[in-house]
Design a protein that fits this description.
Shape: globular
Distance between the termini: 36 Å
Largest sheet: 3 strands, antiparallel
Helix content: 55-70%
Structural class: mainly alpha
CATH class of the largest domain: Mainly Alpha
Number of domains: 2
Strand content: under 5%
Radius of gyration: 22 Å
CATH architecture of the largest domain: Orthogonal Bundle
Amino acid sequence: MAKGLEGIVVSETALGFIDGQQGRLVYRGFDIHDLAEHASFLETLYMLWHGELPDRARLEALERELAGQRRLAPGVLEVLRGLPSDANPMTVLEASVAAMGAFDEEAGDNSREAELRKAGRITAKIPTVIAAFGRLRDGKEPVEPDPELRHAANFLYMLRGEKPKEVEAKALDTSLLLYLEHGFNASTFTCRVIASTLADLHSAVVGGIAALKGELHGGANEKAMRMLLEIGEVDRAEDWVDEALVEHRKIMGFGHRVYRTEDPRATHLRQMSEDLSKALGDPKWHEIARKVEETMLDRKGIHCNVDFYCGIVYYTLGIPLDLDTPLFAAGRIGGWSAHVMEQHGDNRIIRPRAEYTASRDRRYVPIDER
């Protein structure tokens, strides 16, 4: 028995490939290093949904389409206003996407054409939900999306109320690209299981968000940054790691279920963290992270993963810590949608078996005789 389905092949996919031994990640044949260096989030999203990179006209059409879908239906905004200000932002995201489905006239249409349109709407609206809730809980009104701004820049504008610098928008955009697709991870597999019942895209995405909520999956970027805040200073980092290892405490942002070498996404987020820190004049957190990373490699030979430096990038951008995992979802929504469409395109309900471990011969005893 393979506990946790480790190593078990449950289906086929043309969307993503991971070589954990070599540290490779491929989206539909494109190496993640090539995409992270040259492509945008929406350019890569189009490729994931359609199989080929878009020409300029198709990319601009996708950008216009999503820009026109960013506003929330009044009913969805009312849901946000009615939630407590201390609600878990991932719970807020679950409720909001479920509400989007209730207001979407195509919610129950699982044809590819309808699912592409729904995927575009959900992708466009999730950043609006995150930014709106981030402001509402602080007693501020949501900022209307700006159709002239690109996807990542618009999120930062809606959250802050002012337009971001180009280096900030670029960093966020690349981080969303790096989170876009990663094989049959827990949240993506959840989406596919739900989709295999012929449930709709919104329902599958709500399930994906629920799976992503856990700290063993999507919550690690926030916890990694909280760890760095606890360390506080570069000269404390090495001793802090040594003490944590002696006490068998988990060092957040290190190790991966699949990769046995450096997570290729971490390569770009490390550089992004350094560039952003220099551009904004705040290198402290990057320097602490580098010392933690060097110490972990020296003591345990364990590499950092995608979440370690992503937490620093988001913190440097001024994003509240508990919005880190919702932003993970804002990137992964493109992959979830692609997997739902792939599942619906060649469906068989996912129904694994369990190995039964209890007795098979017990007999009922009347209640008065117990």
